[in-house]
Amino acid sequence: MSIRTYFSKAFLSSRFMLWSLFWINLLGTIYGYQWYWKQLTYTAETKSAIFLPFVPDSPTASLFFTAAIGFLLMDSYLLRGTEPRYRWIRGIVEAFAVITSFKYGIWAVSMIWAGVYQGDSVSWQDWMLTISHLGMAAEALLYLRLYTYRPLSIFIVAIWAFLNDYMDYGYGVYPWLPESLEDDLNAVATFTVELSFVSVIVAYVMMKIRLILEKRQP
C-alpha cells in the first residue's frame, strides 16, 4: 500500500479511520476539560460563570472536531441528512472544527516552545501536548475534501473566534501561560488575534479548493 493511499478519500472516510479519530478526539476532549478544571473553577469563583465557555479553548475545538467526525460516520452508515437544518448545523460544526482546531493546535505549540525559548524546562507533558496539538491542526486540514461548510458558516465561526479572543485578553480568561510569558501578554494577545485571521483564511481557502475539486469530478 503506497503512502498516497493513506491520504485518499476512501481511506480517510473508512469506518476504521473515522471511528479511530472519533474516539481519540473524544478521549482527548475529556482529558482537555480535566486539564482546564482548575482554571474553570477559578474563573467561576473569581469572575463569573458567564466566562466559562471562553476558558477551555483546545478541548472545545476537539469536541467540535469529534462532532464533525460524527457527521462523517453518519454518512458512512448511509444516514445522510438532506434537510436544510441538518446541512446548516453540520456546516457550522465543521467550520468551527477547522478554524479552532487549526488555531489552537498551532497556538498551544507556539506557547509551549516560546516558554522553553525563554528558559522554561521541557517536560514529558510538553512533548505530549506538542504532538497532540500538532495532530489537531493536521487533522483539521486532512479532511478538506469531506467537509460541507460554506461561507456563512465561516463567517459565524469567525465572529466566535474573535469574540473569544476579546474575552480572553479583554477580561483575562485566556489559557494560563507559562510563567515566563506572563510579561509578554500583549504580544501573546496580538499573536492570537493574528492566528484567528490566518485560521479563518485557511478555512476559506480549503472551502474554495474543495469546490474546485468537486467541479472536476465526473
From TrEMBL:
The chain crosses the membrane at residues 12-33, 61-79, 91-115, 127-144, 151-167, 187-207. Keywords: Membrane, Transmembrane, Transmembrane helix. This is DUF1405 domain-containing protein. It comes from Paenibacillus radicis. The lineage of its organism: Bacteria, Bacillati, Bacillota, Bacilli, Bacillales.
